[in-house]
Amino acid sequence: MLKLSTLHTYLNQVLDLPDLHTAILLTPTGQLISYASDPSRSKEDVQSVVGLSGDSFLEVEEQGFATFEIKGKPHLGSIYVQAVTEVQDENQDNWQPLMLLALNFANGYDQEVVRLKAKALATHLAKSLSKYRDYLIVSRPLPTSSNISSPTPVR
């Protein structure tokens, strides 16, 4: 069974205040599961990071991670999004991560440190979460005639 208090503790352990200030666990569809953050960060800031992290799903799906600087909100800095999955899972057809781990940090903070922390926590979480894979993965819809483009007949 997943315990949110335990997830929060793990997320809190990767923080390095004030520079690495927010750690978020979310579903690949962008739903917030748990987060830990510097108390000075607003819930709106956390929600912004959740939304932007969820939008990076395609890049995470292709590379296993995504990293980007937040434009227009310099106080938020940058985000590193890591797929939470076991290595053998990536070799399956229609692979998708169990969860996404997003770390929000100040611009200028060592991105290699962020990457290592994200990888370590994602690997640890994947061990527990992988037994729930069948319940966590969202099935992909099969193409139907209504969502396949076809040329419109000329009149």
Automatic annotation (TrEMBL):
It comes from the Eukaryota. This is Roadblock/LAMTOR2 domain-containing protein. It comes from Lentinula boryana.
